[in-house]
Amino acid sequence: MAADGDLKPIKKLSLKENYALLTRGLGWEPTYEKKEEIFRTIDFEGIKIHDWEKWEDPFRLTMDAYWKYQGEKERKLYAIIDAFQQNNGQFNVTDARYVQALKLFLNGIVGLEYASHRGFNILGREFPGVGPRIAAQMQAIDELRHATTQIHAISHYNRFFEGMADFPHQFDRVWYLSIPKSFFEDAVSSGPFEFIVAISFAFEYVLTNLAFMPWMSGAAFNGDMSTVSFGFSAQSDEARHMTLGIEVIKFLLEQDPDNVPLVQKWIDKWFWRGYRLLALLATMMDYMLPKRVMSWSEAWTIYYEENGGALFADLARYGIRPPKYADVTIKEKQRVSHEMWSIFYSVRNAVGFPVWLPSAEEMDWFSEKYPDTFDRYYRPRFEHWRELEEKGTPFTNMTLPQLCQVCQWPCIYTEPDDPTEFVHRETEYQGETFHFCSDGCKDIFCNEPEKYVHAWLPVHQIYQGNCFPEGADPTAPDFNPLVAALQYMGIKPGVDGGLMSQHVDASRWEQWTSRPANLHEGAITQAVRKTT
Amino acid sequence: MPVKAIKPGYHGEFRDRVENFRGQQLLNICWEKHTMFGWPMCIPVPPEMPFGALLEQVLPGIYGAHPDFARIKWNEVQWSSAKGPFTPDPSKSMVEHGFKHKTQIRFRTPGLDGHNGAG
Ligand SMILES: [Fe+2]
Ligand SMILES: [Fe+2]
Question: Strand, coil or helix: what is A44?
Fold first, then answer.
């Protein structure tokens, strides 16, 4: 080389050339190994891909551009988190109830980001096309970043409040957190095409705007600058993920008409699973944010009915119709959050955060936002429960629920056309009975029963005696199986759950901030100065 | 198809077989219209437990806190399962009623439809 004497400096590649080399130039046809041996999971789902080159990543993101953008975002985010911590920002949120929503987020959602990271890593290995493989690898890194930045953004709260210290343990074991956990495990244990339709399309594209927009504006409205900054930092990733979702769908549908019914089935399944998962979010939005931005019902109308309606109208040309049971979600929008908060309240001694009854002011807001249901079904319930609380005998349910075999929610839901009747759906498979919360979940089971017969259902595990902490002695005379099960799950009995007005987070909040722990109910300790 | 799997014939072990419940079986019970309780209940019961024990010893502990509960006229209660209506016999056992592991039974108390319409 040195001998030829006239070596020119290498011309810097344009972004387009750089992307082309990354996604095309780095691929090769294997010769030592058979292609089927390398990509072993690509055929069994029945999806037909004729030309992987047709894949176009609309962002054409190259590695150097990716590191640069992400690095800049990290620097900004951590500067804000530092400032938040130095200014004791945790005490600037509306009241101590807001922190309970964060707790649910940390214990229940962060683990999903990590699970998503795992899922996209698998795709980054399994897809034969280099373009989608690179996109999946970048998303895998994004999702890991989401998990870590969420943990860091919320970690500061952990120094001051109970119930956040052991979130990975809780995510794996707490009875109601098996709902998000099983959602992603179902996706990750599917084939690569089902996973990407499930997560990139049904979840990211169709449903996460709902998680993102109202939740982030809710955090801002309640003074939580740490979570808001995380949200902004993730938002540009989210835009890329959503675009991936829609590109995936179009690519699959355009590759072969035989793909259409498979994709439709996955859209039906994952829309329903995603929607059931979002019931947690509905409850957080309506009941746990001391200052509310919009109701769940309004959010569902805007982000699913209107935006989703337009999307599915657009996909009709491929032969795709709106998800099955979308009509049920619309019928349920006036009640899910109320049904859900009711159960958290009545089993408050077995959950990882304290609960409270909605104040008079909040109930008026519900009456306005839920004109067809609130005054009729839920206001009288909460008024009755308030009377009982005042008498010192708050309403309590001590019995474990019948669970849905698929989504793992307790069967709390009511008939689409009658909010006073529980849904009863069951089927028999190989002589055993299985129960479901809805037709949506029952269909999912009946399509693939072998995938769900070994679901780890917390209630059944407790009754089988599999949820006791190490060293527990079930034969001891003072053994209490439910207390033992809570300990196993990482919930401190008598500390983590219960009523907000008696909770240690609330009394500490008042001592530290001199503001009421529940801004609608007045002070519960002497620590709060009379400022009004 | 029972499942789409990489290897054909995949079988998932039934995690909740009755043998795993140490001699008990699961019974799901739902008091219709009483949505205040949030969900149908799931309890382990001895298969030979008489129905009368369910009425006298189990249900009060589960549902007794509800204002409607004390007013139930048990001879007017309508019982059913997925198989349709049935008439329980207090002296007969779970098994003799045909309740298998994980059977769900429901009872309806017409006239007692939840406290102030709120479940
Ligand atoms: Fe994410
Ligand atoms: Fe379900």
Answer: coil
Please tell me the class of the B19-117 domain.
alpha beta
Mind telling me how many Å the CA of B39 is from chain A's nearest CA?
5
pTM of the model: 0.95
Provide the CA A154 distance to its chain's centre, in angstroms: 16
Between the CA of A448 and the centroid of ligand 2 the distance, in Å, is: 14
- B119 touching A (Cβ < 8 Å): yes
Q: Hey, what are A21's tokens? A: 């080399």
Spatial separation of the C-alpha atoms in residues A342 and A108, rounded to whole Å:
19
Is A461 in contact with A403 (CB distance < 8 Å)? no
Cα B100 from Cα B78, distance rounded (Å): 20
Q: What is the mean pLDDT of residues A31-46?
A: 93
Give the span between the Cα atoms of A150 and A71, in whole angstroms: 16
Q: Is the pLDDT of residue A316 over 80?
A: yes
Residue A511 has pLDDT above 80, yes or no: yes
Assess whether pLDDT exceeds 90 at residue A306.
yes
Domain ranges of chain B: 19-117
Question: Which architecture, in CATH terms, is A62-290+298-501?
Answer: Orthogonal Bundle (1.10)
Q: B36-57: per-residue pLDDT in tens?
A: 999 999 999 999 999 999 999 9
Q: Do B28 and A402 touch (CB under 8 A)?
A: yes
Tell me, in angstroms, the distance from the centre of ligand 1 to residue A390's CA: 43
Which residue from A40, A44, A421 is facing B32, i.e. has the nearest CB?
A421
Other C-beta atoms lying within 10 Å of the C-beta of residue A48: 12
The residue-averaged pLDDT of A214-228 equals: 89
Confidence (pLDDT) at A3: 54
Q: Is the distance from CB of A511 to CB of A498 less than 8 angstroms?
A: no
pLDDT digits (tens, 9 = 90+) for A137-186: 999 999 999 999 999 999 999 999 999 999 999 999 999 999 999 999 99
User: B33 to chain A nearest CA, in Å?
Assistant: 5
Please say whether the beta carbons of A147 and A115 come within 8 A. Answer: no
Q: Which residue has the tokens 């951590």?
A: A78
Q: Which of B1, B24, B35 to mutate to test the interface with A (most CBs of A within 10 A)?
A: B35
Which tokens is A532 given?
Answer: 């009004």
When CB atoms are compared, the residue of B3, B6, B28 closest to A451 is B3
Q: Which ligand is nearest to the CA of A408?
A: 2
pLDDT per position as a tens digit, A434-461? 999 999 999 999 999 999 999 999 999 9
- At A492, the amino acid letter reads K
Report, as an integer, the average pLDDT of A375-399. 96
State the ligand closest to the CA atom of A239.
Answer: 1
Predicted confidence (pLDDT) per residue in B70-85, tens digit: 999 999 999 999 999 9
**In this structure, what are the phi and psi dihedrals at residue A139, rounded to the nearest 5 degrees?**
-65, -35
Q: Which residues of B touch A384 (CB under 8 A)?
A: 36, 115-116, 118
